[in-house]
Design goal:
34% helix, globular, 7-stranded mixed sheet, alpha+beta, Aminopeptidase, 31% strand, 5 helices
Length: 168
């Protein structure tokens, strides 16, 4: 199936409560692959901590998003802090990406990652993220391998364990 997706970068003037609700709902459908978002206030905090958010639409319907931080964020995630300690201010961090189930395996995630990587590459900083190894997220690990990310570490966080990945 070939289709056209519309990417846009909401800013403080264009962000809406409806978009926050869509992000919250899609994020929660993708647990435990993604970390939980508590409520709309938490989505707002992620938005304000982020370097940018990319929203994907198909035929004017929300189908996915990516939240990306950089080294200047005040984000408090332990995973983010791991990369901050390692790279200082010189990195980009993919906090989360989610795509509606009907559009998975249709290159939407690949498109998002290529756009994000082109931005990190243009400013010559590594692109960082993590993937659960406990519980095992085989689909995401395979995707990141296909996208040429390299594992640099594996860290336990409570009952979880994550592979720390970079692409330079």
């Amino acid at each position: 199936m070939k289709f056209f997706t519309d990417l846009y970068y909401p800013n403080i003037d264009t962000i809406s409560n409806k978009l926050f609700q869509s992000i919250l709902k899609l994020n929660q459908v993708n647990l435990p692959a993604l970390g939980a978002i508590k409520d709309l206030k938490h989505v707002n905090e992620l938005f304000h901590s982020s370097k940018f958010i990319i929203v994907v639409r198909y035929q004017n319907h929300f189908i996915g998003f990516a939240i990306v931080m950089d080294g200047h964020s005040n984000y408090q995630s332990l995973n983010y802090k791991y990369f901050k300690k390692r790279f200082g201010n010189s990195f980009m961090y993919i906090d989360r990406v989610a795509v509606d189930e009907k559009f998975q395996n249709k290159m939407v995630g690949t498109l998002l990652y290529k756009v994000i990587y082109s931005i990190s590459s243009a400013i010559s900083v590594p692109l960082c993220c993590e993937v659960n190894t406990v519980p095992l997220n085989t689909q995401s690990l395979n995707f990141h391998k296909k996208m040429e990310f390299q594992k640099i570490d594996e860290i336990p966080f409570g009952t979880k364990k994550v592979a720390m990945l970079i692409k330079q």
